[in-house]
Amino acid sequence: MAYITDSSVEGRNGIIVVDLGTGESWRHLDGHPSVRPQQQWLGYQWGVPLYANNVGRPFGYNSFGADGIALSADGETLFWKAVGGRYLYSIPTVRCTLLYRSEIRLRHQLGASPRQQRDV
Predict the structure, then answer these.
(1) Which of 32, 30, 38, 17 is nearest to 85 (CA)?
(2) What is the pLDDT of residues 56-87, one digit of tens each?
(3) What residues contact residue 59 under an 8 Å CB cut-off, 6+ apart?
(4) With contact defined as beta carbons under 8 Å apart, do 63 and 17 qualify?
(5) How many domains does the structure of the chain reveal?
(6) Cut 0.85: pTM above it
(7) Residue 1, number of CB atoms within 10 A of its CB
(8) pLDDT tens digit string along 8-59?
(9) Range of the domain at 85
(10) 119 located within any domain
(11) Per the domain annotation, does 50 fall within a domain?
């Protein structure tokens, strides 16, 4: 299996699951709050606010959804985080073949980086 984030600023955020054996793919967690950016969330890096720079428009909030993604070492847990948010979520990978939203776990509160810079 392969897992791809859809962090579109257009709002249809989700995780795409691809079965590499068959080539079949499907969207998972489509529009779920865990893959969407937090409203009016402003991240800071080294004490400096990180505003979105929208060409031709005033500075705004970061509106990217899930972009940081990682698998546990045993491949049994998928972790993700929205760029425009501070929370790290997880779900057992076995549940990614079906829509088990009740299995989503809030793991940590993080900073602004979309990358999981820790061993998960």
Answers:
(1) 38
(2) 777 776 767 777 889 999 999 999 888 777 78
(3) 51, 52, 53
(4) no
(5) 1
(6) no
(7) 15
(8) 777 688 888 888 888 888 888 888 888 887 777 777 778 887 777 767 777 7
(9) 2-109
(10) no
(11) yes
Residue 49, domain member (yes or no): yes
Q: How far apart are CA 86 and CA 52, in angstroms?
A: 16
Least confident residue range of 19-23, 99-103, 114-118: 114-118
Written in H, E and C, the secondary structure of the chain is CEEEEECCCCCCCEEEEECCCCCCEEEECCCCHHHCCCCCCCEEECCEEECECCCCCCCECCCCCEEEEEECCCCCEEEEEECCCCEEEEEEHHHHHCCCHHHCEEEEECCCCCCCCCCC
Q: Is the four-CA dihedral 85, 29, 14, 68 of positive or negative sign? A: positive
**Token pair for residue 37?**
């950016």
Residue with tokens 């720079």: 53
Q: Which amino acid is at 106?
A: L
On whether residue 120 sits in a domain, the answer given is no
In whole angstroms, what is the distance from residue 16 CA to residue 29 CA? 9
